[in-house]
Design a protein that fits this description.
Blueprint: H1 25-30, H2 32-35, H3 45-50, E1 63-69, H4 81-87, E2 91-96, E3 102-108, H5 122-139, E4 143-149, E5 154-161, H6 163-175, H7 195-206, E6 212-217, H8 224-233, E7 238-245, H9 247-250, E8 259-262, E9 267-270, H10 275-298, E10 302-307, H11 312-319
Parallel strand pairs: 3-4, 3-6, 6-7, 7-10
Antiparallel strand pairs: 1-2, 4-5, 8-9
Helix pairs in contact: 5-6, 5-11, 7-8
Amino acid sequence: MARSGSRAGPARGEAAGSSLTTPDLRELLALAARAAALPGWLKSRRSRQRGDYRATLKGRGMEYAESRPYQAGDDIRALDWRLTARLGKPHTKLFREERERPVYVAVDACASMAFATRGVFKRVQAARVAALLAWKAVDNGDRIGGLVFSETAHHELEPARGSLAAARFLRAIVASAEPGSLRNGAPGTNGTSPPIATALRRLRTLVKPGSLVFLVTDGREMGPAEYADFAALTRHNDVGVVTVHDEFEATLPRLPEPLEVRDRHRELALHTADGDTRAQYAARFRARQAQLERFCRDHNILSATLTTTGDAFAAVQRLLGAR
């Protein structure tokens, strides 16, 4: 699929340099009020199947609550061997989560996120989603941390409590739109792997069992290796993903003249008057979206999509399962 990166112009009808092209810190800070109206995350898809977070195993190092008979799907590492030996039937230990649950939000700040043909740039929508999740974590009494990654920078923030931690995270997101402003917090990419690959590998190292992990991205660089690392996060954590796209990435407009698309590396001429070209273009997008949807269903991952003209608040509501 043709793509346009950081050289893409502002959204239609808007001036360059406005908050429609770069995340605005004042707007992100103000989203704290709206985040309070979001549904809580004590009951996710995973918890609807296995009960409340406070009565399910989410990893090691948590407070022991009780033991119950083993059920299909229980982690064998949580077997209560003493009770199993005494009663002659397998039993599983149940744990309560830490009072302040770590919440990680990974935000894609790559060049492809600096794009829109209408509405706002994808990176602006991603910043809004991340801000709503961060403020909801604060509202919920959880610790908020995150990871902001791009082709040139990688910044990690350890989960911490309170509004100051959320504000620090939001400043890192805003800084990601300024080239060279972020310091590397982890080894960079090797030149062949996409930045999201490095980010997901780092998350596997950083995230403690029992955490909430959210990924906000356009999903363009998700391949087999990235899906495998993403799936690994679901083994001991609850995971969600919000994908952001522009309508141009889903459907080509029919134009009489070739449409020139360029980024920092190449230029393409798309003959959108040709029906087969438009059909193949749309089919590739649908296939990528369908793959992600199947993956999320198979791995019990919360998911939502957001367009560059959509409402970030509504997308987070969908993500958290609001009715």
